[in-house]
User: Which sequence fits this backbone?
């Protein structure tokens, strides 16, 4: 399931904009109770009761089986959001979900610790009744150790269904497709017009052959206004990207989506429309679980409300290229020396300096502007997905 996070930080900034517009304490109290949660950071929680200096947030998208806790949950998207002490920028760094790490033991879930892919840390904490809180805490501790003791001022989880509602609430997003992307999840039968998965899959969940009479949804390079189903389908894809960049391409598209989401959510057409504001805030309450580390939501809003979409810088782990190592028959991603140094720079609030010395780490938004046509040229107009 796609790494569905990434809206979270935009949501926090969005609340800031709406708080300024509507005014109030009652609004914050009502919606803040829906969004904020205690705990969730374990030993990786920053100490102190203020957010005056540099800030780090852990943003997580999970594959959680609704109504089936026994299936567990894995973190399919892991992003470190760093805000320097100046509070005028945000740097987003995605950690590859297959990164080989040492996961510490967790007494709540009875996990004994070991070496595994980083996305498994959430699942190991989630087990045996640990749930989201323990899953997030164990993941935060794992990322902290990976980054040399990095601490987090807050964290957030987003679920897929609520995320779709939020994109619907603001009327879609404007996205620039930077490589031809073929959907393995959405397609149409050329004879009946019925929507269905277009590919056959092997036992490992890898798409193999195209099903008879099926035509997959294809996103061509260019800039488009996308409905919720289009945007979310696009950023789920990793198997059939034109550049064969797999998870790294998907990470880049997720980061671009954060900026697109934040830009739309803070636009005049949204925040000055009371009906959209109400729908948006209700959708945030369902989509976002924000672990505020005991810092009042109002303080977060006052601290972050001035950061605009063009002040988000998205960064590449491993330079956006695979750095794979096979250990005991299992394929892992290994963070290169430059990425490890970037994480140290995050811990020391030296990201701006580091990025200036390594401009190749910056993901540039791409896609040739081509007006605002629908990117659904390979399939008929699609109704809203439930």
Assistant:
């Amino acid at each position: 399931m796609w790494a569905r996070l990434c809206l979270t930080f935009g949501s926090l900034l969005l609340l800031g904009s709406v708080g300024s517009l509507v005014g109030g304490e009652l609004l914050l109290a009502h919606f803040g109770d829906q969004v904020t949660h205690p705990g969730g950071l374990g030993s990786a929680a920053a100490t102190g009761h203020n957010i005056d200096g540099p800030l780090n947030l852990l943003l997580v998208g999970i594959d959680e089986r609704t109504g089936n806790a026994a299936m567990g949950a894995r973190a399919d998207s892991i992003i470190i959001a760093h805000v320097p002490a100046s509070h005028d920028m945000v740097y987003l760094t995605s950690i590859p979900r297959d990164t080989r790490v040492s996961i510490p033991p967790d007494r709540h879930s009875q996990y004994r610790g070991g070496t595994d892919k980083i996305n498994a840390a959430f699942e190991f904490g989630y087990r045996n009744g640990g749930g989201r809180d323990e899953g997030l805490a164990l993941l935060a501790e794992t990322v902290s150790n990976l980054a040399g003791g990095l601490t987090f001022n807050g964290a957030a989880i987003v679920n897929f269904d609520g995320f779709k509602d939020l994109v619907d609430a603001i009327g879609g997003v404007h996205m620039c497709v930077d490589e031809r992307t073929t959907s393995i999840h959405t397609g149409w039968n050329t004879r009946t017009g019925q929507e269905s998965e277009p590919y056959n899959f092997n036992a490992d969940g890898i798409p193999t052959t195209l099903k008879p009479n099926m035509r997959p949804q294809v996103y061509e390079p260019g800039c488009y206004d996308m409905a919720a189903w289009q945007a979310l389908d696009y950023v789920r894809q990793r198997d059939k990207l034109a550049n064969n960049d797999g998870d790294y391409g998907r990470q880049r598209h997720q980061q671009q989506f954060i900026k697109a989401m934040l830009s739309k959510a803070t636009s005049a057409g949204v925040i000055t429309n009371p009906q959209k504001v109400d729908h948006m805030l209700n959708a945030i309450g369902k989509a976002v679980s924000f672990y505020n580390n005991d810092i009042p939501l109002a303080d977060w809003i006052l601290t972050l409300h001035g950061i605009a979409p063009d002040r988000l810088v998205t960064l590449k782990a491993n330079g956006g290229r695979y750095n794979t190592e096979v250990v005991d028959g299992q394929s892992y991603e290994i963070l290169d020396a430059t990425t490890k140094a970037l994480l140290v720079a995050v811990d020391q609030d030296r990201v701006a300096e580091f990025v200036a010395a390594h401009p190749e780490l910056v993901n540039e938004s791409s896609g040739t502007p081509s007006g605002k046509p629908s990117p659904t040229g390979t399939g008929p107009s699609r109704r809203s997905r439930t």
Summary: The first strand starts at residue 36 and ends at 37.
